[in-house]
């Protein structure tokens, strides 16, 4: 490491202050213009999302527990039952793995019997639950 002489140190200090004095942060304003059709599209999407009801179908809960175990259970399930959809829902304090979207109870119970062969604590969730 080189040690600077006092005159070089003073020169570098003044040079640093002089250069730093003229530095400014960005102070420009940004104006965003948005097409009116975009806002209409967002409103239509919001209406569609509120009209979609996920509580009118039977579903099957295959797991309730910790996050990592829920992720592993869901990935194993998707490998074994690729035709059925599944998701993880957080319901304090557990993560629940919910699968299927069955319109009728008969269809749900048929799949429940197959899933019970692989997973031990499985039960049917009725619509609206």
TrEMBL record:
Q: Where does the record locate the signal sequence feature?
A: none
SPOR domain boundaries:
52-129
Can you name one GO molecular function term for this protein?
A: peptidoglycan binding
Matches recorded under InterPro entries: SPOR-like_dom, SPOR-like_sf
Q: State the Gene3D superfamilies in the record.
A: Sporulation related repeat (3.30.70.1070)
- Which segments of the protein form a coiled coil according to its record? none
Q: What is the protein named? A: Sporulation related protein
Species whose genome carries this gene:
Flavobacterium cutihirudinis
